[in-house]
Design a protein that fits this description.
Blueprint (H helix, E strand, L loop, with lengths): L4 E14 L2 E14 L3 E6 L5 H8 L7 E6 L2 E2 L5 H10 L1 E5 L10 H12 L2 H21 L15 H13 L5 E5 L7 H18 L2 E5 L3 H5 L3 E6 L2 E2 L38
Parallel strand pairs: 3-8, 3-9, 6-7, 7-8
Antiparallel strand pairs: 1-2, 1-4, 4-5, 9-10
The chain binds adenosine-5'-triphosphate (ATP) and magnesium ion (MG).
Length: 268
Amino acid sequence: MAGNTFMYAQNLHKIYRKNAISTPVLKGVDMEVAEGEFLSVVGASGSGKSTLMHLLGSLDKPDVGEIYYREKRIDNLSADKRDHLRNHDFGFIFQFYHLLPELTALENVMIPLMIRSSVFSWLGNGSVARKRAITLMEKVGLGHRMHHLPKELSGGEMQRTAIARALIGNPALLFADEPTGNLDEDTGREIVQLLRELNEIDNVTIIMVTHNLEIARGTHRIIKLVAGHVEVPLQQHPEAFGVVRPESFDNLPEDENHPDETRRPAGI
Ligand SMILES: Nc1ncnc2c1ncn2[C@@H]1O[C@H](COP(=O)(O)OP(=O)(O)OP(=O)(O)O)[C@@H](O)[C@H]1O
Ligand SMILES: [Mg+2]
């Protein structure tokens, strides 16, 4: 893992306002992720994990604070530049997959490249995109399911499809918001194994929200959101992937590992 700071956020504040009600969610979050790191974000339900991911991923803007990516400030970019960043540098995976139901798995994977292209360039490069989508479907173990609709896929297969879709733009930074939250334990482990391979082999930096501490312990580092802040770091670049488990993890409350059926959609 390289040591340079890849993305960092300073003093992030986010308040949701609806009618006369203000909900302060983030109250001064400082965090960073190094290039090549696999970082977990944990915290109680409602602590602002998804909110933080949306800010870091340029899906939403902070009320106060700054976000830097590759040493450039990104929270104040124009809408066009933010779109460009999301389409070219970032990938997103969500708990509920967000696949388009009327498209096949393969077509879903190709969507981000279609959005990127003009009609003209799509006509020229569509077959290249298709080949890349097929390669990615094979990489995530779904070479035999490419022409299935989402409703014909299992949860794990839908999440693999969503991972392939997130990778089609060749992202440097992957945001995964509870990617295993809707899957059984074994399937969840397989998905995390796939993410670990992407991190280790393809050097994709990953920020993953999870409620599953066993899964979080298998990543390089964990940060915890508490009362709108990042709690004092629990772990600083330990021996990777849980070979040695730092003592500090034993202090994490187990009750956050709540059952999947109590989960609500991830807010997108
Ligand atoms: N668009 C919104 N408008 C108003 N309030 C919101 C909005 N999105 C989130 N919130 C509130 O902000 C708080 C943090 O939400 P967020 O989704 O970031 O939490 P979370 O840590 O991801 O929770 P979970 O683990 O349940 O997914 C919650 O109290 C939620 O109700
Ligand atoms: Mg959430």
